[in-house]
Amino acid sequence: MTGKQRQRIWHSLQTVLILIAAFVMLIPIIWIFLASFKSHVEVYQLRLFFTPTLDNYSEVFEEPYNLGAKLWNSTIVAAVTVLFAIPIATMAAYSFSRFRLKFETTILVIILATQFVPAVVIILPFFVMFRDLGLLDTRLGLILVNLAIVMPFAIWMIKGFIDGIPMDTEEAAMVDGSSRLQVIWNIVLPMAAPGLLTAGIFCFILAWNEFLFALILTNRDAVTLPIGLALFRGEEGDLWNLLSAAGIIIMAPMFVLALAIRKYFVQGMTMGAVR
To answer: What is the pLDDT of residues 219-246, one digit of tens each?
Structure first.
């Protein structure tokens, strides 16, 4: 067997393995998508051909499920979290990247270490603090919690992107008379834009899918989409057709967002890997 034949066989094997992995990952999504168009009886039948219905998508927005309010809560919480997290994380990341700070390594390690603390350990202090401050069952409370969750991740990710920007460009601009703020605004931010977008996407996904804190800190007014899925239960058990429709509604923004920014996402991930 020649080298080209072995290489052709290896490439064919890789293609088959990738297709198998993709199929395994897509099976749950395909099942949920099909189940969202089935009736409560048909959802338990393994049939590819059935009469589709849109009743599930309309029913989830009606009482007692009222998914529209939960969709609004999730959108506000995730969007505001990103709106505050990215500028703050960018300023912190730029400081760590461009200035020599006292105990810099220790501070960075502490920031990173907060990502390894189990959420169940810190949820009780958050609950007690928010109860005393009157922030239980509020969108503001969830935004503050999500900021605490995504900020360490955003700082580390954006710092990697800024580290990849040559300092010579900034120094040349300052020699020409630009201030530090002008350099950041006119040079650093445009060059780091794909990285900032990548960090923003990850922060949005983390805030959008956050479950445990929303479960404990909300009750009625600020309930988000992941918590709303627990409502789809009746006397006959889990309402899988409604659960599937709600699940598609939760996943749809992520798919649309990923398709819209896929070029910048890949560019940002590549830029963050360069040192």
So the answer is: 888 999 999 887 787 766 788 889 999 9
In terms of Cα–Cα distance, which of 99, 72, 106 is closest to 223?
A: 72
Give a yes or no: residue 193 inside a domain: yes
Which two structure tokens, joined as six digits, stand for 173? 């601009």
Q: Give the 3-state secondary structure of residue 234.
A: strand
Q: Which CATH number goes with the domain that contains 152? A: 1.10.3720.10
Nearest to 228 by CA among 63, 81, 80, 82: 63
Which residue segment(s) compose the domain that 156 sits in?
Answer: 64-272
Is 82 domain-assigned? yes
Place of tokens 């445009």: 190
The residue type at 92? A
- Which tens digits make up the pLDDT trace of 51-95? 888 999 999 998 888 899 999 999 999 999 999 999 999 999 999
Please state, in angstroms and rounded to a whole number, the distance separating the CA atoms of residues 164 and 192: 9
| Rounded Cα distance, 156 and 199, in Å | 10
> What is the C-alpha separation between 138 and 99, in angstroms, rounded?
38
Total number of domains constituting the chain: 1
